[in-house]
Amino acid sequence: MLSLLLTAGSGCKDSSQSQGVGWQPNVPFGTLPPGFDSFPERWNKQINDRLAREEAAKQKEIRELRDKFFKEEDSKVREKLQSKLIADEAALSVIHRRQTEGDYIKFKTPADIPQDLKWEDGLDNPEIGDPNAKKGGVLRQWAPGSYPDTFRPNGPNSNSGFRGPLYDEIIIGLVSIHPVTGKIIPGIAHKWAESPDRRTVYFELDPDARYTDGAKVKAIDLLVNMYIRTSEYSRDVFYNNFFYQNASNITIYDDSRFSITLPFAKPLLPYYCTLFIPSPPHFYCEFGPNYVERYQWRIPPTTGAYVVKPDGIIRGRQVTLQRVPDWWAKDKKFTKYMYNVDQIVYNFIAEPSKAIELFRIGELDVLNITKPELWHERMEIPEVHNGYINRSTFYTIYPRPPYGVFLNTSKAPFNDLNVRRGFQHALNIQNIIDITFRGDYQRLNSYNSGFGKFTNPYIKARPYSPEQARAYFARAGYTIPCPDGILRKPDGTRLTAAITFPNSSPSLASTLGKLKEDARKCGLEIQLDPLDSTVAFRKIMEKRAQASFMAWGFTPPHPMNEQGFHSRYAYDERGGLITYTNNICAYADKEMDKLLDAETNAATEDELQKATWKVQQKIDDEALWVPCWTTEFIRLGYWRWVKWPNSATTQFCHPVVFDPMESYLYWVDNDIKKETMEAKREGKTFEEVDTVYDQYRYMDSIESLDNKDGGGKLPSVPVIPESGDPLEPSATEK
């Protein structure tokens, strides 16, 4: 054990003069961060003390419930008290079990690994992508919104929209879920085994696994990541609760073998262990009190296929990801046809019309054209009609982002449930869908739409109704109309609320403006608060916004709502508002906490379904969020040199993806690019390509693919022939 810990931080020189992307630590691989040597002991004490406090609090709560139960004569009340007692006693038993299991972090030897484990490697699943994919080329795309505030993977402002391309979409975790079969496949761990009680998973790291700087991934790196994220220096309160709630032990056996134990059994247990990810220890050799500032623009090496180099940055305008030529997973079964292009260039362009024009002239290679105005109007252009730009509509099976208006319950008037419910009735969402979006979109209902059987089908969004809105507002005391029609209380308080949103989309401002006008008919004054996307995000995360239009990105396979609605992410022990957590509604409710705990701790999918339906119902009952709109598909425009899979296992893209660009299955064919540019100069054209991939349209989950006995085969769909040779110019063109 000591050999793993006592090399921390020695010999790390201060290189703080180099703060940017090009910074490299001048210490050997494996050098541990300052302060790490005492981290396991400190963490174990912190967890043990917390368990002791929770044990005492739970025992007191049980005693008080028992006293109430025996004194209560009403049978219905006694039944409710008994139900709470059963739940509390079950929670206490979990605390006791964790206490008897010992320290959270342990170090043992390989001899301590059980010998009767059944190891799995997931290699019986089909390949992902197309064997015809070509490596090389450059793909240029638009990054909507503002340049990020930081490149740090954690700490203040790190949860921006660009962290996906920079980290979340490309990092290879311990394992992942096959996007067609729904089964576990290897990541940086090449094999794993579950304990009989389905709480512990034993992992062995792939001996080839490396960071983008060439350093070997080791088991201790999981603890390094945990140390960085839970440190007070990171100013990120989320992760202390996250690791405490979602795991009860991590044991290191040697450099490549370790085990992770969760508090409860889980479906797809190995996947839930991916809450632990590795961090290269040497990169954090300057970790300390000024971490947030010092590492503001430093990008750590990852296990992914891409790296950002100093020459790949144009501050405020552009970030280029460059593929690592000798990437460790380039020949692995499930990644060899992914991450094909040499460079991905993200261009931060504030004005959408400029991005559209750059795409039209070929300065951008691909563009999301899902918005009806783009699809029906802006893409009716010669470049599309002449076959230079292709269009595709792809139906996905993926959790729908909860686009809507989040209501901050710590701010008036949304600290009143009646106002929140009235606000929902005051927004004419269906009119926006029918008119502005031309019926292409659908109304969201449940907060967790798109999770298949885990989506509560009985929840329906509250419809626009001035009568019902005014009735709820009256219950909140807003009964007197002002001369301009806005309601007020007898004390003069007007019914007004501001919606904060990013100003990167003019169409969003116009849409919210229409909602504002219809809300006036309900006696509600909406003030629009458009801000630069980075500024808007900061205001929302600091919980200064009354209401905010936004959406979180959800991932399959199961809903996980704790981060967004648990009280531990709203207020601290002294009642102070906690900023920079995903509970942007600042919502705190003991009943909701218990429902969320049940969702988090569900041991089977049946338990999870029941628990998450209740959570979704509670979100709806409390009117914490106004559900707006969603789509079942993504529409892409792309120059014909951008190619997509057309194989037996992957038709255009796998279905479990929000945006096909996030699959990294595409590639750039430079020969076709040369052919296209020559044809364009000579006035030659190609067939117009407008393809609909709807093989997944009526499926709501991976299970719908019915692959359990089919070895991962896709539904039967015809292979789309590639576009052929250029057509000769017409007589008029000549």
TrEMBL record:
Residues 183-561 form the Solute-binding protein family domain. Coiled coil: none annotated. GO terms for cellular component: cell envelope. InterPro entries: SBP_5, SBP_5_dom. The keyword Transport applies. Residues 1-29, 703-734 are annotated as: Disordered. The keyword Zinc-finger does not apply. Keywords: Signal, Transport. It comes from the Bacteria. Belongs to the bacterial solute-binding protein 5 family. This is Extracellular solute-binding protein family 5. It comes from Akkermansia muciniphila (strain ATCC BAA-835 / DSM 22959 / JCM 33894 / BCRC 81048 / CCUG 64013 / CIP 107961 / Muc).
